[in-house]
Amino acid sequence: MHALIQEMLGFLQKDEIKALPEVGLTLYRCDTPIPQISYLQEPAVCFILRGQKTVYWGENCLSYGDGQYMCYSVELPITGEVLGASENYPYVGIQMKLNAPILLQLMIDLGKSSAHFSSDSPAQIGTINEPMINALHRLANLACSPSDVAILAPLIQRELHYHLLKSEMADRLYQMVAVGGNVAKIAQSIAFLKANFRQTLTIEMLANQVNMSVPNFYRHFRQVTAISPLQYQKSLRLTEARQRIKQKQGTLAQIAHDVGYESSSQFSREYKRMFGISPSADFQAA
């Protein structure tokens, strides 16, 4: 791991985030702590080679650091912060997007069935092992060899997914690619919420949209995301609002209305409850 950290520190500028889409990785270097930032986290694995990060969603909070990774099996509106980074000890991390077709093919090749597995959280912390580091190192270096990417990148990506399936993440990843099961229906509902979070929605509407009973839908949604459907919608609204506030894209009243709030006072209460700061104070600090 030390060799990869040193190479990344030599490759990245201070406080640089560099996307390598050709190999499906994003590299991170932070020389200063990053305060809480809200965003929609896609299904991915976030490896921390050095440093510490805390993420929040709903009432949930997870911290992980040196030599650990976080696996997200569904899209989540989260708030994250990088702690303790400095010029003497920069944060170094890598994010890899999860590839559902690769996971599905590996599951078939391994003779596994998602029906044998269960998981009750959308995010889980694991320990980076040597095979993962070796594959990450080779995949990151491959970005410097464009002529080799088309042939070798899919092979190394498959290898990384294989190592994840052999780790403590197996339950979560098998559920992620379950076809026709409850997890797939919740993923469909999440996609619907993302596209329609500004609208007034009810549990009944969301359950009907995926052909599930209300109790069954609610139970499985909480099992997959660790928050309720309407909490998820609220998080999407407030995450979008905070991004607009940070960029000062309109007045607070306009922003509240644009993300689906009819009441400015309700927007202010829920914003402060989620982020610990009022929207007006956040706007002034932006």
TrEMBL record:
Designated name of the protein: AraC-type DNA-binding protein
Record domain HTH araC/xylS-type: where: 187-285
PANTHER family in the cross-refs: ARAC-FAMILY TRANSCRIPTIONAL REGULATOR (PTHR43436), TRANSCRIPTIONAL REGULATORY PROTEIN (PTHR43436:SF1)
Any Pfam family the entry gives: HTH_18
InterPro entries: Homeodomain-like_sf (IPR009057), HTH_AraC (IPR018060), HTH_AraC-typ_CS (IPR018062), Tscrpt_reg_AraC-type_HTH (IPR020449), Tscrpt_reg_HTH_AraC_N (IPR009594)
Keywords: DNA-binding, Transcription, Transcription regulation
Entry keyword annotation includes DNA-binding: yes
GO MF terms, alphabetically ordered: DNA-binding transcription factor activity; sequence-specific DNA binding
PROSITE patterns the UniProt entry points to: HTH_ARAC_FAMILY_1, HTH_ARAC_FAMILY_2
